[in-house]
User: Fold these one by one.
Assistant:
Number 1:
Amino acid sequence: MMSFPNSLLDGYRNFMSGRYADARDRYRQLAENGQNPTTLVIACCDSRAAPELIFDAGPGELFVIRNVANMVPPYEPDGHFHSTSAALEFAVQALKVKNIVVMGHGRCGGIRAALDPDAEPLSSGDFIGRWMSLVRPAAEQIGSNDVMTPAERQTALERVSIRNSINNLRSFPDIKALEEEGKLELHGAWFDISTGELWVMDSETLDFIRPEI
Amino acid sequence: MMSFPNSLLDGYRNFMSGRYADARDRYRQLAENGQNPTTLVIACCDSRAAPELIFDAGPGELFVIRNVANMVPPYEPDGHFHSTSAALEFAVQALKVKNIVVMGHGRCGGIRAALDPDAEPLSSGDFIGRWMSLVRPAAEQIGSNDVMTPAERQTALERVSIRNSINNLRSFPDIKALEEEGKLELHGAWFDISTGELWVMDSETLDFIRPEI
Amino acid sequence: MMSFPNSLLDGYRNFMSGRYADARDRYRQLAENGQNPTTLVIACCDSRAAPELIFDAGPGELFVIRNVANMVPPYEPDGHFHSTSAALEFAVQALKVKNIVVMGHGRCGGIRAALDPDAEPLSSGDFIGRWMSLVRPAAEQIGSNDVMTPAERQTALERVSIRNSINNLRSFPDIKALEEEGKLELHGAWFDISTGELWVMDSETLDFIRPEI
Amino acid sequence: MMSFPNSLLDGYRNFMSGRYADARDRYRQLAENGQNPTTLVIACCDSRAAPELIFDAGPGELFVIRNVANMVPPYEPDGHFHSTSAALEFAVQALKVKNIVVMGHGRCGGIRAALDPDAEPLSSGDFIGRWMSLVRPAAEQIGSNDVMTPAERQTALERVSIRNSINNLRSFPDIKALEEEGKLELHGAWFDISTGELWVMDSETLDFIRPEI
């Protein structure tokens, strides 16, 4: 008995008759030669914010980490399992990517939870509560303000969290060194699910601005 | 000064004039009502194996975790940051997904490293070494066999690792309970980058077979 | 001797040969019958944010108050001179406008000053310091946060100040009553000088959003 | 729900496709570098007398205060909110404008009210009554004369009020000092809504005359 979701099999049929058929040689070459992406994107698991769709990226272009709220924890070489740090290490050391993009988005459920003082653990493990504690200091500062609307506070924290993750990227000695040598660039981006607007972080002011399109 | 990669901005322009323009109402509705995906896919960061491409999925359809070698660690409620466990908790408890698909692929760099007895740490943190130790027992069994070719050993471990992750999913009490209640299904899939073939795990035999297309 | 600025006289010549020549009858009729605008706009003195330009408004369309940071003080019937309150009274009671729009803008010098803890009085009278104290409580909340960038804090306060002014409008008994009777609507708007974007306040969430254009 | 007046959104569309599209670079530069207007215009809120239209002024050219009857109160550093004095202070001290133009116009409702002995307060706050008392002494002199027609009395007071405001400008110590140093010029102007005629005050005779066009 095999019960694989039909919706996924239907999509797979479209892939085979469409994109794969069009890019058959590209897939074969990528299989032979291995991947060589120049960009790592750290994105959210959110079903509305897939980087391959937003950046119209084909096979081999983007190495992608996806976790809740597209966060990077600080450097902690403590022998535990570190999914995100392991993928970072692989992208930077093995693939030698030239760009890392921390990509956030509007209406992020993780960020909303971080701003909710009454948020209950989702399970006895409270993995989300612990994970989102990465932005707790910023969440407390922004959440304590009662003049901005909830939506304004959420957008603010979504962007602050991107800067926070970029700072955490620099806590990895190798990333910091490569950035200083000009071999690696760290970028921030924020996607508005509703309007489709992409905002990118200005590397000097750290503000999020809309690029010329 | 703003130095966002032009290749990404070019792709974004295509997205806005293409997919977004076509699905504007869908994006707005998803922003208004929030996401409601029924499927979580745990996939690899590999740039050649994006689930949205392989399953031709649109916005709102797939909640996606991506880490190296699409692995799930065992349940460890120890107060550390657990990127993958946090995302699992969010997908199962908050989004109440009905399906979890652990999706592996051929030519996986993480699995290759796990099979390489001479693999050196990629950095002093050795995050990848620690992360891939999740499949070390299986890697040692398969690696010690010298009758299978390297490619055969790698494909074998790629598939064993998917079953290993599905077993680890069941170490999460809530996931185990929901599966037993018939409210959540756990699936395995393996994608051949070269041929584009999708193989799915038979839920009874645990073999990987090619679905009828 | 008459030393009227030549730049203004040059502009006036353009007006006479252009807009006035085109709208001569409209001007005569407006002189005969008096003005009958249905909208009051409370805008900033800023030279970059003239409402007649942004709303492409002709003669007779907008009754306009302009002060620093487009603010409305609370109702204070204390017998002092109240420029803004007097104009409000005239617009609501004599002209019976149907809409009041509090229109802010980006890069507002007054708001920037309100956020600057080291701001010195501009003169011994310190009129600006006193005037901007209308938003001091909000400025202190937003200014105390050190995770948003200066530009983010300024945009946030520009929008909070618009809501603050709308609340102050409701401290005028007649405005409150007319609004409750459905005879007067209060609106907020924010103009981005750089991009030309107009954001309007959602009357329910109080968020600023971009209208369909 | 968002109920922003459609007439304004229509005008905004014209602005974006017209003036903004034509002056995009100018707006961006003004946003980057800040405003640097050399002229402050103190004009009436009247919908028929927008200085940007009459002087065909583009973005960044005029810093504009608009209150009822374009008046300047005397210097009163009493700690109350002074909308007009605050804007004056900002224009003179922060922007260092070179010209201040007090610009009146025909058919001014505020001046008419000041000349009406039977004028009732418009509301219990009587803000207009208090505000227009700035010209009461002149209004009583001119109103007591029964040989001029009502229209003649009104035009006369409109012009007297402009001179009165210019005298009040000189009650601000810094403005008086800058004018004496030749760093700031004070001007009067009067606009005839019906004919479009602009009359400017001769700085020696204080008469209003029509400039050579």
Number 2:
Amino acid sequence: MWRGGGVVGRALAASCRPRPPARPCPRPPPPPGPEPPRDLALPNGAWSDAMRRQYRRLLDMAATGAWRRLPSYRSARHHLRAGPPPATGTDPPPAPPGPAEAPATPRDTRLFLRAIDGDGDGFEYAMFLNAAERRLLCLFQPGPHLEGHPGLTHGGAIAAIIDGTLGTCALAVAGRVMTANLSIDYLAPVPLGAVLLLDGRAERLEGRKVFLSCHVRSADGDTLHARATGLFIQLDPAKHRAQDGEGGR
Amino acid sequence: MWRGGGVVGRALAASCRPRPPARPCPRPPPPPGPEPPRDLALPNGAWSDAMRRQYRRLLDMAATGAWRRLPSYRSARHHLRAGPPPATGTDPPPAPPGPAEAPATPRDTRLFLRAIDGDGDGFEYAMFLNAAERRLLCLFQPGPHLEGHPGLTHGGAIAAIIDGTLGTCALAVAGRVMTANLSIDYLAPVPLGAVLLLDGRAERLEGRKVFLSCHVRSADGDTLHARATGLFIQLDPAKHRAQDGEGGR
């Protein structure tokens, strides 16, 4: 939706002011500049029925106010360009923590979990945060480009979505953080196209250390595919400003 | 290089036999069928000078015979299509363990570590195996689509290349395996475009368990970026045949 603004828009609006109220002001053309980035944490044609059902369930949960859906863009620059969150409503949702704090990088970089082109080919996921409970749910559908053994999701892809889930949870709890340890028990193979629910929790904080746990279950809750622990370190804000871009996960 | 073969090629060759030797047999057209898959573990224009230097060093090491370079293709099907390794020589190298054993899957799947299009954008790597020492070296250059914090490699991408390194090492030692545990200490951030050397070793075998370690160092050896342990489980061959495709990492 066009919201106005920009040099051309403001000039046109100013030129309209002296006109009598009977003559409506013409709608100004769209402002120049890049298109708003696409939020990749919204349903697309590659989401399975099971994925959509779970997503609606989580949206209903978010409507109570305790949870909020986090948008997700292709790169840190897109997160910046998306601007501040709207004052009300859960969809479109508030801007996420983390990447929006960081400066844009000059190269055409992509956030790793959003690097694969093609709806449904890579990581399809949507995250829901409950800040009061220090808990983050990540609905995840692994696509055919995440293959390890034939037909199954690569262990590295499962590690990556766990790192993303725990990192985002830690970020919400403690601000900018970096991964210090990740330990994963793989309990049951994950078929490509399955729908999983990752349940990440910040268990405790000790100084700048954030200790987290993660359970990776099938969407119906019947299978525990993996469990993990994570240790993330809160970055020193002063050091972070002095050495911007050096801490990272 | 065309090597002959195929229905058209054989028919043309047969039709040439009665001709006198003075008339050379015309070169038959290329055989029908798909192009051979591209080996993605060879240098391309996106490899940095440091990456190329390290690669040449490892190739020289492989020339001694104890090490061999492993080719790498976009999907398990490509590994199958590449066929058996040549009898001699280190480049092109022998076929890798693992994916070539598995049946092709019907969907357009990709091996996760080779899923990102664009030379240099994702995981650029080449693996060298020393089977006698149960050791695998992986030369790795993370591209701009593996970003976590701005300018830095995502912790999940580092986990993925560690899982790939240890999984390939375990596969060479024990046949088809699946990841049971992966534990990673992240010690120093990895800038995008850096050149790393992962040193994976199978430390011991206990029944069907393979215990491994991995050190992730800068190519010059000065910085230890991460260290990890991995536990992989050898799949029961009988069960594997009965439930093909169900074990996986």
Number 3:
Amino acid sequence: MTHHAPLFDDDFAQRFETLLRWRRDVRHFAPQPVAEQVMADLLAQAVLAPSVGHAQPWRFVRLRTPGLRAALADHVDEQNAVAAGEHAGHARYDDYVALKLHGIREAPEIMAVFCDEQPLAGHRLGIATMPEMLRYSCVAAIQTLWLAARLRGIGLGWVSILDPRTVTAMLDVPPQWSLIALLCIGYPAEPSDKPELEQRGWQSREPLADRVFER
Amino acid sequence: MTHHAPLFDDDFAQRFETLLRWRRDVRHFAPQPVAEQVMADLLAQAVLAPSVGHAQPWRFVRLRTPGLRAALADHVDEQNAVAAGEHAGHARYDDYVALKLHGIREAPEIMAVFCDEQPLAGHRLGIATMPEMLRYSCVAAIQTLWLAARLRGIGLGWVSILDPRTVTAMLDVPPQWSLIALLCIGYPAEPSDKPELEQRGWQSREPLADRVFER
């Protein structure tokens, strides 16, 4: 434990900006495995994220069963076919079906993140009016994990085209856990500082000025 | 734009770990203002966060009206009195009322973060079955802002003891925006690598092993 507050210099600040700029949602993975110690290090940093009331409501479920992985991939493909239907008849449809939206079959590591909606830790501090703060705490841990991974050259892909109840049932977790994310983790086939959806013309980055308001 | 994927060395990795360890939820602020350019830099880094479908659904509302700040502080104090009632008759009650849970009156900067639940950007990619992904994207931006702030010696406090509908009405935003966070931003009075709730015996950090499961 350091007892004096650290100062971060310009060199660190520049590299931190580079880290943010090269963090991508990865769907194309190289076959290289992620070392078990690296996975442990990523998780240890993820839980340095803030959590409401220090409730630490995150529950990480690592997938070890090949049959489960195949079932998850099939489920996401099905849900994706339904989602594609939203764009049917629109010029965007061809772009949609050309997108690779998950790497569940080939990513070296698959991990689900759940939120314990009734954690003992935290004694319910800060959630009387906003119970969603527990779920938001889990998201903060995921974003921390994402940056920790990128620092090590590892990519993460967050799959959301799925039915949370179906995936929750597949993974057989306690009833008070809700699914936050299904994550694919591995070395990216093509690191980039530009989002794939931007590269492929789906959606560009919008000006910050359009996102900031005053009251 | 760099065209070769960056490598991050051990020195950076160690300082990144230090950054994570010194990120705190701050409720005690020094009076020193945050320079306008620094606020702009923080926001510019926050929006490097991932967002579902690249929808960039975050909407940042900076508070400039003293009367609004006072009204928000009063509202949070009221809600906090209600929340304290949950602990009445329990040994924890005295600990609860001794906690300072927000710095709304004294923080140099107050900012609300909203999620646009119907963003034009992203063309609804990735939210057919999990519309909450839009809100989760906003949380990823907040955690990014949090780290960007800490890098600059600035603290952030996330206030969640409030009624989101009341605060949303106070801030007079479009009807499809939902409140994600009310943030206090400024230099911390006492930087620390230990959460205040841990220092005060409310809740300790739990072992990572209790958070990781396999299926």
Number 4:
Amino acid sequence: MTDTSDTTDTPPGRVRWIPTGRSIIACKPIEPDANTVVFSTRNPATGTVLPSRFQAATRVQVSDAANEAWRAFDSARAIPTSDRAELLRAIAQGLADAEDDLIQICAQETGLTEDRLSSELGRTTSTLRLFADVIEDGSWQRPAIDTPDPSRKPSPRPGLRRMLLPLGPVAVFGASNFPLAYSTMGTDAASALAAGCPVIVKGHPLHPGTGEIAAQVVAEAVRASPFPNGWFSFLHAGGDRERDIGSELLEHPCVRAAGFTGSLGGGTALAEIARTRPDPIPFFAEMGSINPAFVLPGGLSKEPVGIAQHLARAIGQYAGQQCTCPGLVFVVKGSHAASFIERLALELRGMPPTPMLAARIRKNYLSRLESLLALPGVRTEVGDPKEIRGASARLSDDKPTHEKPVLLRTNADTFLSHDTLHEEVFGPASIVVECENPAELARCAGLIQGSLAASVFLASQDLSIAEELVAILSLRAGRIVFNGVTTGVEVGHATVHGGPFPACNRSDTTAVGPMALERWCRPVAFQNAPGNLLPPDLRDENPGGCLRLIDGEPTRDRVAASKGGHPDS
Amino acid sequence: MTDTSDTTDTPPGRVRWIPTGRSIIACKPIEPDANTVVFSTRNPATGTVLPSRFQAATRVQVSDAANEAWRAFDSARAIPTSDRAELLRAIAQGLADAEDDLIQICAQETGLTEDRLSSELGRTTSTLRLFADVIEDGSWQRPAIDTPDPSRKPSPRPGLRRMLLPLGPVAVFGASNFPLAYSTMGTDAASALAAGCPVIVKGHPLHPGTGEIAAQVVAEAVRASPFPNGWFSFLHAGGDRERDIGSELLEHPCVRAAGFTGSLGGGTALAEIARTRPDPIPFFAEMGSINPAFVLPGGLSKEPVGIAQHLARAIGQYAGQQCTCPGLVFVVKGSHAASFIERLALELRGMPPTPMLAARIRKNYLSRLESLLALPGVRTEVGDPKEIRGASARLSDDKPTHEKPVLLRTNADTFLSHDTLHEEVFGPASIVVECENPAELARCAGLIQGSLAASVFLASQDLSIAEELVAILSLRAGRIVFNGVTTGVEVGHATVHGGPFPACNRSDTTAVGPMALERWCRPVAFQNAPGNLLPPDLRDENPGGCLRLIDGEPTRDRVAASKGGHPDS
């Protein structure tokens, strides 16, 4: 809902976006419903309840959104890709125009800084624009044509044309820690729209106002586009209704795929619903990731201070609430390692307390820390064990959620013998693991859980151990960063943001970058199809000039007569 | 094991392959083990037990095969792709050279004709050769390079290089109905080897001799190659051990992915094991498929006899035991439909009884038929209901398994109201569904279960209903065939052999064609990697000249300096 009346706060001519507390179904705010669960949220930096009240979507509203999405999908087949690209760009522009309002409310709801949110919004809009560029060239759909050979013996070779086709309505479960880049119009929603699928967003209860404003912007862009209104819905989800809204979406026959970013427990439970429905649907979950850093001896001796500074920032900034936060730092014992750990500790001690996203998240974080501290052989290098012990039990919802970074320290033996040290700690903490030698470090690498990313800090003399590490990490991480930290995901064509379980439930995909579009599609082959029944990008004429595999050769040409002629039967 | 001594049966100079009954682990036949379960199999065409005795792999042997595969994978990283391609070609040649022995034993074990098996072997070897060609060009790994931009503000753009990398050892569960194209060195095993993964085959108990001979050929080719012997193992699986061997393989930590072709029940049970192990692994199952044919009014009036003949052959040949057998035929009522059904019935009645693969499969087939016949509104058009009722209970293992084709007939109302009519009947049977009008036919299409393939027989006047049908089938089938039958899978670059559940558990993949290789891989991104730590196909030099996406543009060039220079850090 837009409001241009409030001229005191708003410069003339600027639209002001404010949340209404109502879900948006088929691009329209729903009428208030007296029987709905109402919820609110807190400013984690102060502990105070924010003024807005949000109405959780009812079961009927969930079903309406899904039915409308299906009808929209069914009726929008003829809308050309160029309109889809324009819609993505209009959404990007709308979000950029709404930046001030979005960031203001988002900072209140999440405790994240305006700088961080501004850069996150930049990533969100540039992702939308990148996807618009990508789909304008149909090549991403992987079109392939095998031309027929009627004279082949013993049987003629049929003409086969294959392409990725969209699955249908996609449900998106937003993340608490990236309220813009992973929520209403984050990478899951953007990639689904780009792939040609309608989107239903389940709003996140920790930033409902942010989610709704972004949804208002998207709805406005969809209404101004050739797409039916059912193309987009946003459902407020909170209070007692939160979980049920998720299940209802995943069980609805019109929902054909879903994306999730969140905890291992949440992702696993939702995956089970998607898997056990009568017609199982693809479900893509990004969950917990440990993102180890391996600081090799050469790298350490070359630039100990710089590495310590980079790692400290990656561990502590945004209270460590990033899916790529480095949770383990491996070093080989020695004088360089000792001074590196000292410097890392110094940097972390110098960082200010930062609010966590919610008391609940802070509580989980402190419990995890406490259980790690109880292990023999684990000690705190930064942080006071006395403050950590029992802290989670003392928390109350109405207090600020600030935490200072914590650094734990252990040795390889302890790491190798306690599985709990291999699991994510979601918060501003990391564990330094000292290894006796490079072989022991490689042995530790072999026990790393599936991760989104891993770092290797090295110099030229580390080549041999680096080769071994890269071989190991290639089986355990989606991205291997050299002489840099894992935080700060670059959105490009080559991006991989995924990894083996438990980082993701589908290690063959990425949540970020253009390959993410393929998650919402399925390859379909057309055999001896009349030209007028083929999708445009598979027709002889190749109107979009997209790169197609013709008899195994990539080419942007139309199908030449010499290739076997027209496949019409 | 080869035998050149038997000069009576074997032309001079020709190697003769005979099964020994022993599993092959790391390319070597294992020593006999007195404590092993021994099993045999029957010739289904006669019901007699075949003379060979096979020793089911023990738990230790399963583990040995998996461990050897892992060690082989770990040690074979430096072997160039050209050697991988050569291995595939050597296997293809070896199988072609062993054709006489393979087909002789296979015909005895399966009751399939020599002609059919010869064509199946041709498909098997041409698949191996196609995959060899595909991997010689590294483009299939989808390499992508985003060049760095150190001058970008506010932060430099890192260099990102992405490629698909192999997962590790793959377990292959062969199919009863395609003893060559889907078993020891069928499409799953061939694609895994092509992708750079070692293979462990669980032999199928209905054709153990065929499986073992094929495995002997593969082992000989691997031994003559630069690959370690652990690259390939074949485990005899039968008797009480059959299921356990499957679970043990899927639970083994060294097995990193698996492929299965078989029943819905079997696939679902195995998928559960792969999913619930501590580190879940990808599991690709091809299961049951109904493969509907839609004969539209125009198509029907144009060529009723030809369509009836093609469909009859697709339904009845090889006792209907093909995953692409058309299980449903939809027509719109009218005089053309009546004479078409008559002709289809005539053709089916004229087909000879054909042996099914095993008494167990025949029993399931007859039970399914009986349950369908019990539905009100379903009647037999071809086949005697009295013979079908109770037949499954009267079967005994020592009798020939021959069955004649059966055609059931019903109307759209009955089809729409009975889910069991939407499910596969594995055997030489199909159901004709008469619809009142094209709209009703489209409504039926909307209830089709996920299928590998669907057929549409049409003429130009059917365009409008065909468009609607194609839209529906694009969501329900992996391949849509126009004016042709679904049987006879063409193996080309554009092949899709997959489909939504229950046809497959992963509708985004294909079991046949080069895209099948991607199932055994995962994308990995390297950020700011030194050139010498990158896989060759991602290095600046692009030694294989493969097509890479450089900053979004496909090119076969090396990375030019103008693109941002060398990414070494």
